[in-house]
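From the methods appendix. Each design record in this collection lists the tokenized structure first, followed by the designed amino acid sequence. Records were kept in a plain field format so they could be parsed without special tools. The example shown here is representative of the layout used throughout.

RECORD:
FOLD TOKENS (190 positions):
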């Protein structure tokens, strides 16, 4: 979905879902990129010829037998759309101190701006609101802990700044289309 924004601009009637690996609608199939295209092809084989054929193809090309098209676990985090010297240091600090109880007001204070001015600058620089960005950063940090450790969900939630394992699960499923447990099972270092 590298050109998602361009596609939205050129074709406003088309709904672009950048959180999916691939999408199938009627006879139109699209994918996030070349690797996701392989996932899409395996899914087409699964639908047309069944799971045994899809598993055989997946083994032959050394791919997981099935990754749900709604999964977003391999998509990179968006970076700032425009460089912004006031916002950049705040982004860096929040990432380094992700465990802290960051709020939009606190981030605005770090940038020496009013909350409203900060939100305006933040959206101009990143293309998303600070609350959404913060939740996405916390999920990214949780993904790293999920694949590298066997820490319980409560510990991971606390380590990345979520108030509870329930909050972690909610934000994780919203952004990754998997539960943290499913993500760990599929991607942890074994």
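DESIGN:
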């Amino acid at each position: 979905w590298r050109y998602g924004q361009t596609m939205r601009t050129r074709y406003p009637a088309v709904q672009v879902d950048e959180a999916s690996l691939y999408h199938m609608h009627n006879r139109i199939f699209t994918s996030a990129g070349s690797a996701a295209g392989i996932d899409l092809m395996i899914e087409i084989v699964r639908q047309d010829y069944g799971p045994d054929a899809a598993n055989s193809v997946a083994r032959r090309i050394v791919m997981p037998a099935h990754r749900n098209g709604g999964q977003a676990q391999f998509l990179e985090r968006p970076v700032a759309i425009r460089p912004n010297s006031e916002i950049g240091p705040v982004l860096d600090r929040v990432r380094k101190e992700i465990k802290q109880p960051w709020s939009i007001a606190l981030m605005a204070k770090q940038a020496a701006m009013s909350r409203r001015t900060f939100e305006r600058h933040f959206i101009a620089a990143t293309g998303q609101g600070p609350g959404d960005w913060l939740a996405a950063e916390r999920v990214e940090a949780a993904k790293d802990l999920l694949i590298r450790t066997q820490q319980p969900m409560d510990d991971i939630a606390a380590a990345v700044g979520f108030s509870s394992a329930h909050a972690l699960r909610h934000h994780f499923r919203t952004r990754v289309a998997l539960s943290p447990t499913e993500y760990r099972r599929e991607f942890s270092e074994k």
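APPENDIX NOTE: The longest strand covers residues 22-25.
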